[in-house]
Input
Amino acid sequence: MEKIDKIILGSNSFEGVGYLSRAQTRHYIEFFSKKENIIPILEASFNLGIRSFMCSNNSNILSSLEDFKNSSDLSILAVIPNAYEYARESTEKGVLGAILSKAKKIDLYRKVRMGLQAIRKIQGIITKDLLTILTNLMDFEMASFHSYNVPGVILHGQVTDLALSSHNREIFDVYQEIIRERYKAQPILATHNFGILLPKLMEWNIKLPIVASFNKKGFIMKPTQEECERLLEKTDYYIIAKKVMAGGRLSPEEAFPYLSDKNIGSVVLGIGSLSEAYHTLSVAKSAFQNS
Amino acid sequence: MLPQDKRMVGIIGFGKRGILHASMVNINPDAEWRAVCDTNAQLLTCMQNFYPNIPFFSDLDEMLEQIILDTIFICTPEDTHLSLVKKLIQKNMNIFVETPLADSLASSEKMVNLISDKDNVYSLGYYFPFKALFQKAKDLLDFGILDSVKRFRASLYCTLAQSSLCPKRIIANRISSFFHLIYWLFGPVKSLYGRASHKLTEGRSGVTLIMDHSSGLMGLLELSWSRPGYPLPTVKISVEGTGGTLEISDDDLKLYLYKKRGGFERGWTTINISDLSSPSRFFLSEEGYYEGNSSFIESCSEKKKSAIGWEDGLEIMRMIEAVQFSIDSNRIIFLNEAK
Output
């Protein structure tokens, strides 16, 4: 497995995903709809030595990466599929309608950049089965990242957890095979249900890095905080902690001491403003240098 | 647990909610998802190899004939609920219906009448009572933290697509969930008066309501599903009592007390959503879904009344019809008129 950086910049806030309040979510959606507000945070992170960026193919993020002068020096950990966008659209258009709608919305410029093959695949999915859809979705979404260095690809938490509840190991096998064979990248799984996913992966003998919630408030640590911590202590899986500040309810100074004695390889940190970038990332760097 | 102790579950309707319920049943040790039925053959073909061990049917009769089931989740549009229930009642099933209960008050009444002499569990998908923050608000109000409650103001804002793109059932679902929250927190409504510029379920609309509850409590409600800047449905409720105020939102509770009471100090206390631990052992999509789903399964296993019953759904349909009646006639409607 290629080494994963200790500190990874996350993109939830850039995609309008917030956990603190509805007001914060509304602010993120408006504020980060302008790439002029994303690029300074990418620059600040880069200046602080952060070289890994975990993001989906959200159009604002892709536009920001295109304009960010150091994007070729970044390791992109691509999150696929862009589940939040599908979830929002599927409320009004249905699950398949949302996927098709996404394909139709892509402008000509991006279609040329992505390649016609990826577009054809997404347009033909309606007649196929879900596993084929998922593989085509992977191709479709990965096409957005073709000009970047992508050492790792993360299956979105909602999709991982849906696959976990299906008890169908083939989904995980297909996923890791495609990411390894076709994209020569490290497959990674995100989840909100670490304490259920890890035992299942061990039973299936599937060993992949896992992105999971770990914070001292137990925020979205399922089935329980205690069970997640017990499994974390003993596991030899590579764990990337997310929601370490409990969705913004802990300051960096409160959050990082909890992680210091935990068996955690990396942390992914979402940033909502320029001042937050300097504050959070500086505290994180200091905490990890001392650990 | 012996297999016969598990609820044997079938799902009817395999859209977003059907997939969610199937997934949650599949993770519940007290239940076994055994079959799914949807008339959209294209969708079934699409989903089949994601769930290789689950038989997929496009004909309900075939599913009921071929698979042994005791519990059904109906996740189809509300105008199908009555006809499906008529068929399932004969098969002696526990039934969970996604909201609203039906497409009209008349259909809802028929559904409730159909189960009046049945012993199975009949529930429906209202999820606010299963969210830890709203449960805490309910506990505080039931405890009497505000002493005598006098009035409340409540709002539901969201931004949906233009009416031509936004199915009425989405609006109907949001209205009915919000009304259930009000009903659950403050009890039955005696009368109401509503004003709106459009039909209740039209996309570019908002409604203002005054509600008198049977308890004597008065409420002022505002609903809008075309309010700019609300990409997520956003609830706010402010309750005033002789002992203080309680402000309830999706994110936190803010309690102001004139004097120390129930373990809370005088002045403001804020309880954030992250301060309350959700008892849920699984998270998919949103807090409340797994809790609502597993609460129904537990009721079926223990043969006890579900936390939310079809009678509650009928009361919500009465509220919805009364609101529309009030808007159309520009007068106060007493809910017993809608019965």
In short: The radius of gyration of chain B is 21 Å. DSSP finds nine helices and 15 strands in chain B.
